[in-house]
Amino acid sequence: MTNVSLPLKEKNYTAQVITIGGFFFIFGFLTWVNGTLIPYLKIACELEEWQAYLVVFAFYISYTVMALPSGKFLERTGMVSGMRIGLLIMAFGCLLFVPAALTRMFPLFLLGLFIVGTGLTLLQTAVNPYITLLGPPERAAQRISIMGICNKFAGVIAPIILGAILLHQSDLLISELKGLSGLAKQERLDELARGVILPYMVLTAILILIAWLLKYPKLPPLQAESSKEDDHKKSLTSQQVKSFSLGFLAIFCTVGVEVIAGDTIGNYGLYHNLSLDIAKSLTSYTLAAMMTGYIIGVVIIPKYVSQEKAFLLSNLLAMVLTMVILFSPSTTSIAAVALLGFANALLWPAIWPKALKTLTGKQLNKASAILIMGIAGGALLPLLYGWISHSFNNQIAYLVLIPCYLFNIYYFFYQPSNSKT
User: Fold this and answer.
1) What is the value of pTM for the model shown?
2) How far is residue 197's CA from residue 188's CA, in Å, rounded to a whole number?
3) Can you give the pLDDT at residue 8?
4) For 299-324, what is the mean pLDDT?
5) Residue 404 · residue 253 · CB < 8 Å
6) Using CA atoms, how far apart are residues 251 and 8, in angstroms rounded to an integer?
7) Residues 158-194: pLDDT tens digits?
8) SS3 content of the chain, % helix, strand, coil (to 5)
């Protein structure tokens, strides 16, 4: 039998948890700023709505492309060194926003987002097993909820900060652009695009600084203590493959609905005739609702509700809210999209411990990498939403949420085998 442990020393424990929480803050800031980049790049690069959703596609598809290479890479470097390299890769991706802004080339913005996502993939593949294995399994969702608070707090402030910088007095900007044409319009759009340079240079510097400081918390390696018999049994049983394959699909659905709720709400507000000054920050409302869900999760799990039951109740609430979105008038419907953040909060935290439940230490890198690939749901489902909204309308497009929540409900009732290799 293989036991997985983190050799944490009590005196370093707080610093280590704070460090991991800091990573989740970085994840949140660089992930949820996409909600502002979508309307910003739509204007600056003169995009159709479906093209604007390539922002989230480029960002999240990197998880699918790079997850397995990240797992292999971490086997060579170790998780802590891999984290530092991931931060440097993210810094390079942020730096690419400078030439992208100077040339106003949308494909270069997408390349920068893909590289940032690549660095995040490396970090996520390393960090998620850490927090999952840091204590008792029945409290894993509670620990991940704490990390989620860090993540979603960053998600709340990122659209507000970047929105204020990139889309300052946006309604006046829209009116101004309508009155311009030819060279004058292109010069104004060039000026708008250059607004992204300073914030992304600051992000580049911060990421490099964090990579340098990472040596001080003395994060321990993820260790697997195995018998000689285990060393010869690294392959997965069919039950284990099924278990984390369903976990992969649950993550695919969960990240997809999270991204749709967070990154489409701005355009959805515009669809219902809200001003851009208001719509540009609507992502913050979804993330604030999500952070509230995480805080409640920390309090009630597992004292009052098990992480499994919270997962089921959250999906049922999300189904109700989806009905409200589809059949309610504008203000109520927009509010229901924001409240999906609350319903989505406890989905991701409950999937990881269940998906990793039957796996041994030798299998964790590979399994974690495959689960991370499920984040591709954040790339593909918003594009499907964009296609449906283009073919019908933005409100009907939220139908894409229903099969995702139904699958998660099925996943709740699935019981993984306890057998091990």
Assistant:
1) 0.79
2) 16
3) 47
4) 91
5) yes
6) 28
7) 888 888 888 877 788 888 888 888 899 999 999 999 9
8) 80, 0, 20
Distance of CA 240 to the CA centre of its chain: 25
> Residue 183, class by beta-carbon neighbours within 10 Å (0-12 exposed, 13-18 middle, 19+ buried)?
exposed
Question: What per-residue confidence (pLDDT) applies to 325?
Answer: 98
CA distance 264 to 283: 8
Cis check for the bond before 39: say yes or no (omega within 30 of 0). no
Cβ contact 119:60 at 8 Å: no
* Domain assignments of the chain as residue spans, ordered by start: 3-213+237-413
Both structure tokens of 360: 């041994």
262 token code pair: 């967070």
Lowest-confidence region among 1-10, 35-44, 111-120: 1-10
Q: What does the CA dihedral 244, 247, 248, 250 come to, rounded to 10 degrees?
A: 170
For 387, other C-beta atoms within 10 Å of its C-beta total: 14
CATH superfamily assigned to domain 3-213+237-413: MFS general substrate transporter like domains (1.20.1250.20)
Distance of alpha carbon 261 from alpha carbon 382, whole angstroms: 9
